UniProtKB/TrEMBL annotation:
<keyword id="KW-0560">Oxidoreductase</keyword>
<feature type="domain" description="Aldehyde dehydrogenase">
    <location>
        <begin position="16"/>
        <end position="473"/>
    </location>
</feature>
<comment type="similarity">
    <text>Belongs to the aldehyde dehydrogenase family.</text>
</comment>
<dbReference type="Pfam" id="PF00171">
    <property type="entry name" value="Aldedh"/>
</dbReference>
<protein>
    <recommendedName>
        <fullName>3-sulfolactaldehyde dehydrogenase</fullName>
        <ecNumber>1.2.1.97</ecNumber>
    </recommendedName>
</protein>
<comment type="function">
    <text>Part of the sulfo-TAL (or sulfo-SFT) pathway, a D-sulfoquinovose degradation pathway that produces sulfolactate (SL). Catalyzes the oxidation of 3-sulfolactaldehyde (SLA) to sulfolactate (SL).</text>
</comment>
<dbReference type="InterPro" id="IPR051020">
    <property type="entry name" value="ALDH-related_metabolic_enz"/>
</dbReference>
<dbReference type="InterPro" id="IPR015590">
    <property type="entry name" value="Aldehyde_DH_dom"/>
</dbReference>
<dbReference type="InterPro" id="IPR016163">
    <property type="entry name" value="Ald_DH_C"/>
</dbReference>
<dbReference type="InterPro" id="IPR016162">
    <property type="entry name" value="Ald_DH_N"/>
</dbReference>
<dbReference type="GO" id="GO:0008911">
    <property type="term" value="F:lactaldehyde dehydrogenase (NAD+) activity"/>
</dbReference>
<dbReference type="InterPro" id="IPR016161">
    <property type="entry name" value="Ald_DH/histidinol_DH"/>
</dbReference>
């Protein structure tokens, strides 16, 4: 299928804009040129923010029913063009066509939930007479939009993670300016198509394409930006936290997710879930399985089955219906993963399967006996690599799981309720998936982590809370 996108233009305050300077977007699978996209300047970003501020002021009393109509209209547009969206995701990024179709479905769900949550954006009454002398007062609080939201999104979910910024912003009545990942801007531009078709007021959405170094600081520091929502790496996250000043910040900064497998688990379910969780989206997934701790009695059998199922994965053409694993986003990323694996092996790790790079492709890899100080154990690999360790007990597994600077999600496989709740209470992370891998999420749940995994929570309702402020109204009778 031929991909047709308006790749030559970006959306600036509701208008599709050409720029003299452009940058290239490539298919990482074969380095084929996919599109040339406007290379924005600092001035373009400033204009987008100014127009967003003006649009917000114009629509400060934007009715809830109109916001719902726009969000539902965007869903309908995506539904009508869902294969185009999927093909675009699979072409500019790393996902297989099957994974891309799944992301399109999730993006529609994210916007549907946003429309539903717009109805539920409420306050509550306050009993002022709890305070002596306030018996003659009544009142309430309600939530109002902060104004203009600045969003920076990553490459690994180029449609749904943009929807997770835009949907809640529109649902709560904010304007939003998005800087999508430079390597995957086309899906974000297609999302703007959907909102334009749905009748979103001009200026309420901008998708500004270009270099993060050129545009990021302006977006983060501009005084009209009242809330920054960022999904990406820890180093950029720290910079944003330093630059933003006094404004709301929401950041999801990745992880190094552990899974604990106990002797009393459903073995087949644990193995298949860990394989899917480790190698889906070629491991470029913030909640993907990276470390697995298996009780001693089960270690050999679990590892044998894990390797067998890993070897059965089909690595190849992203657009083939039969492909399980595609390329990483860039060959440089595949080289980085290769380097980390080689370093782990040199430090004493044992390669059980994988470890082969071909351009941007890196074969699904299982490592054992890797020293716990190795980079591939301590940091987020963001690639198709998982390490396995035997442990004597649940307590040891939890201790080792917590021994990193990240804490987004974790998984534990057990049929013992006491064991499950011990893991829930003692794992230091934002979410514990019982009898599932760390790689489980629905778009309605609060999503975020502790330590270096971020600040605040996403998930539509929780993003809306971050994008609004409570205002108290007290009436003296």
């Amino acid at each position: 299928m031929k991909i047709q996108v308006r790749a030559e233009k970006m959306m600036l305050a509701g208008n599709w804009v050409d720029k003299e300077k452009t940058f290239d977007v490539y298919d990482p699978q074969d380095n084929r040129l996919v599109a040339q996209v406007p290379l924005s300047t600092k001035e373009d970003m400033e204009q987008a923010i100014h127009e967003a501020e003006q649009a917000f002021k114009k629509h400060q009393e934007w009715p809830t029913h109109e916001r719902i109509k726009v969000l539902k209209g965007a869903v309908e547009y995506i539904q009508e063009n869902k294969e185009l969206y999927a093909q675009t995701i699979a072409t500019e990024g790393s996902k297989t066509i099957t994974e891309a179709r799944g992301e399109v479905k999730r993006a529609m769900q994210t916007l549907e939930i946003s429309a539903e949550e717009a109805r539920r954006l409420k306050g509550e009454t306050i009993n002022f007479d709890q305070n002596e002398g306030s018996e003659n007062r009544i009142g309430y609080y309600y939530r109002f939009p902060v104004g203009v939201v600045g969003a920076i999104t990553p490459f690994n979910d180029p449609l749904n993670l943009v929807a997770h910024k835009v949907g809640p912003a529109i649902a709560s009545g904010n304007a939003i300016v998005v800087k999508p990942a430079t390597v995957t801007p086309l899906s974000a531009l297609l999302l703007a198509d959907a909102f334009e078709a749905a009748g979103l007021p001009k200026g309420m959405l901008s998708i500004i394409t270009g270099s993060g170094r050129e545009l990021g600081e302006t977006l983060v520091t501009h005084p009209a930006i009242k809330m920054v929502s960022f999904t990406g790496g820890i180093n950029v996250g720290k910079t944003i936290a330093q630059q933003a000043g006094v404004k709301q910040i929401g950041m999801e900064l990745g992880s190094n997710s552990p899974v604990i497998v106990l002797n009393d688990c459903d073995l087949e379910d644990a193995v298949s879930s860990c394989v899917s969780g480790a190698f889906g989206a070629v491991g470029q997934n913030c909640i993907g399985v990276q470390r697995i701790y298996i009780e001693n009695d089960l270690y050999e059998e679990f590892t044998k089955r894990l390797v067998s199922q890993t070897n059965a994965l089909n690595v190849g053409d992203k657009l083939s219906e039969n492909t399980d694993v595609g390329p990483l986003i860039k060959e440089d990323e595949a080289k980085r993963v290769e380097s980390w694996v080689n370093d782990a092996i040199q430090e004493g790790g044992r390669l059980l399967t994988g470890g082969i790079r071909d351009g941007a492709f890196y074969s699904p890899t299982v490592l054992a006996e890797v020293p716990e100080h190795a980079q591939i154990v301590k940091e987020e690999v963001f690639g198709p690599v998982v390490t396995v360790y035997p442990v004597d007990s649940l307590e040891e597994a939890v201790e080792k799981s917590n021994d990193v600077d990240y804490g987004l999600q974790a998984g534990v496989f057990t049929k013992n309720l006491d064991h499950a709740f011990y893991a829930v209470q003692h794992l230091d992370c934002g979410g514990v998936m019982v009898n599932d891998s760390s790689d489980y999420r629905i778009d309605e749940m609060p999503f975020g982590g502790v330590k270096h995994s971020g600040l605040g929570r996403e998930g539509v309702r929780y993003s809306i809370e971050a994008m609004t402020e409570p205002k108290v109204v007290a009436i003296k009778l």
